[in-house]
Amino acid sequence: MVVPLMKKSKNRQIVIIGAGLIGSIMAVALASEGFDVTVIDGATEKDRIKQNEGRTYALSRTSKNLLANLGLWDAKKLNVSPIENIVLSTKSGSDDNIKHLAAFNKESSEVEPSSYMIEDFYLRTVLGSKLNTNTKIQLINSTEVIQDETTSYETKLILSDKSSFTTEILIISDGRESGFAKRLDKKFFKKHYNQVAIVGNLSHKNEHNFTAHQLFLSGGPLAILPLLGKRSTFVWSLPEQMGNRLSAAQDDIFTNYLKEHVEDILINPSQIGEKKMFPLYLSFLSETIDNRKVFIGDSAQAIHPLAGQGLNLGLRDIACLVDTLLKGKKLGLDLGSTDILKKYESWRSFDRISLMTYTDLINTLFSNNNFYLKSLRELGMNAIDKSNFLKSFFMREAAGEYGDLPELLK
User: What was the pLDDT predicted at 91?
Assistant: First the structure.
């Protein structure tokens, strides 16, 4: 048998596995600081766009700062919709009326919104242009890592096209169920919610006035979030059995069921494109670093979508890791050294654990009909609704303005 000759290994300062949003923004952030970066992904750019068709994200104010600092923020090109008001409500059943819990309004015209809605297609388009024109970034599509070897001074990667790279540090952003994590036998804390999320976009006849609604229903929370024009996106968390039935239902049947729950929040809603469904679970990597390797984004943590913080959490990973590596570079340190990686992990640990705990607790508190829990949550929400101090605190939290912020988030 003739064995194909291996191509000579190329050395790159940093290699990123995964060209999704987090991996790609990570590359742009590192390149902006002068690092040489190679990004490797097993899919094509068209495949990634198609796979995420119709997806939307809620970006915090600090996440918007990160994109702006990297030259990626153009409100028109990104089709951005601000979230200026947030209304929390509850409803026990389809025959009951919606009950107001709390409202959070924009503080003043001088203050930027705490969050923004952004559509996946536009973000990937702007990001793709940046990746393709930055000479510090090498993007390799349709290619997988089939073998990796790590020594005390480098990691060597062998790719499916028989090429190979060596690098000081490997940043892993290959998404949920990370293949690299499995290869390294990394330990995840997992919790299955026995829920699914149905997501999609809607057009409607009324103005949303840039108001986001979080409606707590007996089966799980339903978020209605404003897009530009008379359009909104929804994220509906439901028990598996009910979610499977609704996901399989024809669009008009599903929309009619949705109407029964949202009342006049949306008038004559009509589905845009296909709705999608995915299982909900908590996946938390206890150690995000390994020998010359670091996991970021969904590869490190996947949380419940009710707070819309998944992408923001990954963007904070980026900002903290860039800050840590930049300080190491200025000191002439080995980028993949244990000391540098431990500093990053320590910096991120509190934010990761607190957000995981918070979303898990909120989901438990609001995804049931227990009389005592219902009474407790309504009392708590009413107290928040009457306190300007508490409202201001939660709006700053939603904006991501807490803790020791790295430069990219300011």
Answer: 83
Contact 83, 116 (CB under 8 A): yes
Domains and CATH numbers, the chain: 10-409 (3.50.50.60)
Looking only at the bridges linking them, the beta strands covering 137-140 and 37-40 are parallel
190, 183, 402: which is closest to 295 by C-alpha?
183
Question: How many whole angstroms separate alpha carbon 288 and alpha carbon 294?
Answer: 6
Model pTM above 0.85: yes
Which phi-psi region, left, alpha or beta, contains residue 242 (left: φ > 0; alpha: ψ -120 to 50)? alpha
Q: How many other CB atoms are found less than 10 A from the CB of residue 252?
A: 10
Q: Is residue 400 pLDDT above 90, yes or no?
A: no
State the DSSP string of 331-360. Answer: TT--TT-HHHHHHHHHHHHHHHHHHHHHHH
Residues sharing a CB contact under 8 Å with residue 161, sequence separation 6 or more, in sequence order? 143
* Rounded distance between C-alpha atoms, residue 251 and residue 141, angstroms: 35
Rounded-to-integer distance, Cα 201 and Cα 76, Å: 20
Integer Rg of the chain from CA: 22
How is residue 11 written in tokens?
A: 């050395």
C-beta of residue 212 within 8 angstroms of C-beta of residue 225: yes
Contact of 31 with 321, CB cutoff 8 Å: no
